[in-house]
């Protein structure tokens, strides 16, 4: 299929058959891409970062790691990782993140992007799983939570091979008020290959 353009600050959904690969391209570099996925046959089974970190034994997933569901099944395998630093702990941004932490109302958010992109599946916000934040460069020295600039270079990609039929969504994170995407937002493309 042709690549899908994700304008800065928005999200898109795709469906994948088991065995297909989703490529997420950091067109300009420096952009965080929040990713969630559901078992297409049962939307109650979804990506689970906290089950994934138990199974891979690290906070930062990379090539060869299988991302798990809330039923601990292998959902996707990372088969390409050009950047080498992604995050699994930070919640998707939502309207309250901008309002309570930055005093900004009406800001776009990954949570809203997912609900928009997945509109035809009629999900409620509480049904959104916690995302994997591809290209997000977090550091946790001595347990502190530090937001650093994305290490993604222009054209960097991650590829995810589906291990079950999936409904997946990607958000070009609208956060422009902290360093994660260098205080601005950038476009992404996604492609099923
Ligand atoms: Zn976000």
What does it look like?
With 193 residues, the chain is mainly β. It has one domain. Helix content is 12%, strand content 34%. The chain has 3 helices and 13 strands. It has helices at 49-56, 95-102, 110-117, and strands at residues 4-6, 11-16, 21-26, 33-39, 42-46, 66-68, 74-81, 132-134, 137-139, 146-148, 156-162, 166-172, 188-192. The strands form 3 sheets. The chain has a 6-stranded antiparallel beta sheet. β4 and β5 form a beta hairpin. The longest helix has 8 residues, at 49-56. The radius of gyration is 15 Å and the shape is globular. The termini are close together. The model has no long low-confidence stretch (mean pLDDT 97). The structure holds zinc ion. Residues 34, 92-93, 109-110, 173-175 line the site of zinc ion. Zinc ion binds next to loops.
Secondary structure layout:
Layout: E1 4-6, E2 11-16, E3 21-26, E4 33-39, E5 42-46, H1 49-56, E6 66-68, E7 74-81, H2 95-102, H3 110-117, E8 132-134, E9 137-139, E10 146-148, E11 156-162, E12 166-172, E13 188-192
Antiparallel strand pairs: 1-13, 2-12, 3-11, 3-13, 4-5, 4-8, 4-12, 6-7, 7-11, 9-10
The protein binds zinc ion.
Zinc ion is lined by residues 34, 92-93, 109-110, 173-175.
Quick tags:
mainly beta, single chain, 193 residues, globular, binds zinc ion, 3 helices, six-stranded antiparallel sheet, five-stranded antiparallel sheet
Count of DSSP helices? 3
Heterogens: zinc ion
Report how far the terminal alpha carbons are from each other.
7 Å
Coarse morphology: globular
The helix-strand sequence is: EEEEEHEEHHEEEEEE
Average pLDDT over all residues: 97
Count of the domains: 1
| Radius of gyration from the alpha-carbon trace, in angstroms | 15 Å
């Amino acid at each position: 299929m042709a690549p899908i353009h994700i304008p800065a600050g928005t999200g898109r959904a795709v469906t994948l058959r088991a065995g297909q690969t989703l490529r997420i391209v950091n067109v300009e570099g420096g952009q965080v891409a929040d990713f969630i996925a559901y078992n297409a046959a049962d939307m109650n089974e979804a990506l689970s970062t906290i089950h994934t970190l138990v199974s891979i034994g690290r906070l930062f997933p990379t090539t060869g790691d299988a991302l798990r569901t809330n039923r601990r099944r292998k959902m996707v395998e990372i088969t390409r990782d050009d950047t080498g630093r992604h995050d699994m702990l930070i919640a998707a941004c939502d309207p309250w993140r901008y309002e309570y932490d930055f005093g900004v109302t009406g800001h776009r958010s990954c949570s809203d992007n997912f609900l928009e992109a997945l509109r035809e599946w009629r999900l409620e916000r509480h049904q959104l799983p916690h995302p994997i934040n591809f290209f997000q460069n977090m550091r946790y020295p001595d347990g502190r939570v530090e937001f650093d600039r994305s290490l993604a270079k222009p054209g960097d990609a991650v590829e995810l091979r589906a291990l079950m039929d999936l409904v997946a969504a990607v958000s070009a994170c609208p956060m422009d008020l902290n360093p994660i995407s260098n205080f601005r937002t950038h476009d992404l493309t996604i492609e099923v290959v």
